[in-house]
């Protein structure tokens, strides 16, 4: 028994001795592992030097768009809702119809007032033309009366001389003298009639001016009535997607009350990325941007502009750092990013979260992948 145990122990010792003489697997693979680590470090360092240090990214970015809240401009009842929720509409398309019977009646009343004013102007112009004809007639009567006065004066002078010399009768002299005085009176009467006719002309012209003023007022009232009638149809100001509808058929609405909203289509939206001030020293308009949407997908754009001030200064209560204790906080500047054309941003909606990465390399078209940067380094690209 003891002999067998001794043999087994010797064999175990011999096996351990043989294993100690063989090189371990880690020792055999260690040079290869070191080579892989060095190669990875070289590739990573090369990528960081050529690409990574020229990239700035932030997840403080959101999709933006000009959303318009449409409201009633007149008072009335909602007669019809002409679109469905989340429906795409075109510019000028009717969205909501208000009851228009009262506004049509007001439009018709304004049109009637304008027609009445036009008739007043026509009458005034006719009266002025008639008065001018009367003035012409009065001036002709003056000329006629003056001619009669000249003849009567000549007759009176002639017959008076004959009566004084004894060759004519006193009766003829007195008769011609009376005719002369009558002719002079007729001249004075004709002149007075002409003056009265001339004086009436400015009055008629003033009445015409008043009528023209009434026409202008009636025209303005008609234009206002036409505008109010047009306001009974609420139309889309631009092509987009409707939403946030609060209008209901039969509801009474007042001016300024929001009824429906129109959001811009995806192709008219943009991204506002709030970069830290420490990220802006090399950022310029025109640099390419890669946008990763939280809803999925990736889009490409470019830096369009940088805000003229930090976002904090545009807030309701801007910070005042000159008071009390001071704690420095890194500020953020809104950067507007425009989408490149030729894409299909169907998932874009204002308010969605985006991760933006700006490529600030001198040659943005150069390879940006790990292997691409390595190939460019050794001159293969």
From TrEMBL:
Pfam families reported for this sequence: BSH_RND
Key word Protein biosynthesis present: no
TM helices/strands, residue ranges: 31-49
Biased composition (Basic and acidic residues): 10-20
Gene3D superfamilies in UniProt: 2.40.30.170, 2.40.50.100, Helix hairpin bin (1.10.287.470)
Region Disordered, annotated ranges: 1-20
UniProt cross-references to InterPro entries, sorted A to Z: MdtA-like_BSH (IPR058625), MFP (IPR050739)
Domain Multidrug resistance protein MdtA-like barrel-sandwich hybrid: residue ranges: 67-261
Signal peptide: none
Coiled-coil regions listed in the entry: 128-155, 180-228
Protein name stated in the entry: HlyD family secretion protein
């Amino acid at each position: 028994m003891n002999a067998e145990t001794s043999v087994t122990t010797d064999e175990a010792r011999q096996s351990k001795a043989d294993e100690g003489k063989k090189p371990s697997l880690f020792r055999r693979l260690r040079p290869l592992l070191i080579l892989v680590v060095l190669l990875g470090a070289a590739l990573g360092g090369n990528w960081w030097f050529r690409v990574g240090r020229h990239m700035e990214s932030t997840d403080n970015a959101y999709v933006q768009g000009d959303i318009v809240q449409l409201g009633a401009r007149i008072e009335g009842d909602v007669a019809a809702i002409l679109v469905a929720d989340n429906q795409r509409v075109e510019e000028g398309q009717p969205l909501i119809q208000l009851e228009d019977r009262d506004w049509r009646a007001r439009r018709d009343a304004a049109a009637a007032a304008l027609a009445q004013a036009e008739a007043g102007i026509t009458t005034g112009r006719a009266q002025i033309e008639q008065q001018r004809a009367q003035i012409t007639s009065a001036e002709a009567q003056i000329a006629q009366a003056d001619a009669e006065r000249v003849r009567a004066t000549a007759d009176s002078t002639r017959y008076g001389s004959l009566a004084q010399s004894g060759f004519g009768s006193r009766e003829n002299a007195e008769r011609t003298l009376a005719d002369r005085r009558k002719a002079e009176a007729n001249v004075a009467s004709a002149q007075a009639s002409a003056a009265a006719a001339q004086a009436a002309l400015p009055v008629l012209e003033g009445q015409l001016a008043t009528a023209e003023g009434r026409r202008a007022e009636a025209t303005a009232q008609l234009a206002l009535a036409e505008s109010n009638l047009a306001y009974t149809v609420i139309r889309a100001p631009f092509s987009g997607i409707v939403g946030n509808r609060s209008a209901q058929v039969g509801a009474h609405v007042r001016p300024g009350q929001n009824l429906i909203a129109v959001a811009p289509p995806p192709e008219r939206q943009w991204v506002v990325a709030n970069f830290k001030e420490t990220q802006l020293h090399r950022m310029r308009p025109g640099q390419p941007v890669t946008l990763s949407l939280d809803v999925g997908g990736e889009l490409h754009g470019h830096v369009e502009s940088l805000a003229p001030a930090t976002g904090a200064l545009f807030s309701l209560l801007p910070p005042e750092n000159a008071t009390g204790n001071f704690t420095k906080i890194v500020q953020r500047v809104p950067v507007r990013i425009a989408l490149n054309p030729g894409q299909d941003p169907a998932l874009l909606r204002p308010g969605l979260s985006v991760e933006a990465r700006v490529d600030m390399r001198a040659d943005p078209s150069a390879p940006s992948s790990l292997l691409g940067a390595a190939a460019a380094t050794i001159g293969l690209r």
